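Handout, section B. The chain below has 188 residues.
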Amino acid sequence: MRIVAGDYKGRKIYEPLDKKTRPLKDLTKESIFNILEHSKNERISIKKSIVLDIFSGTGSFGLECISRGASKVYFIEQHKPSIKILTKNINKFNCEKKVKLFSENVFDLKKIKKIGENKFNLIFLDPTYKEKNISLLLNEINEMNILIEEGIIILHRHKRSNDSFDSKFKILRTENYGISKIIFGKFI
């Protein structure tokens, strides 16, 4: 695992030692950023953006955003071994001033005061493939009104997952990479 582009391009990311954390593959991550940079409907500038990385794991996605010029990344992760690796990665890239790490239950977003005080350009959700409550989390994000109007939400799911979404969440694009499915969406 490595950073694909930007200031930290080519630098390796510490990987988890356990099987619970499923890091985002470099090719998938690179494809996501190509879509964000070059597509018509899902285009968003990472430079100077504020990003929320939920179920952060190693921090691969959020650190890629920092490398590409994001002004701030908020990580939310509750799995203790992942928090250790994520902290190690943040320290390795010396980006402590550009990140905020919350070791909280992601389904209690409203309790994380700093999250509710922000408007995010991009929200990335990378739950375990078995997680079934994604629509509940999306509803909470929508109720909190923390995504800017032209902001994008990206979900990393198993290609066979059959998530159902509220009618307020519009899927803009879906891409499959191996066993992964990447869903780009926004609230309407």
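Note. The domain at 26-187 is CATH 3.40.50.150 (Rossmann fold). Compare this with the example in section A.
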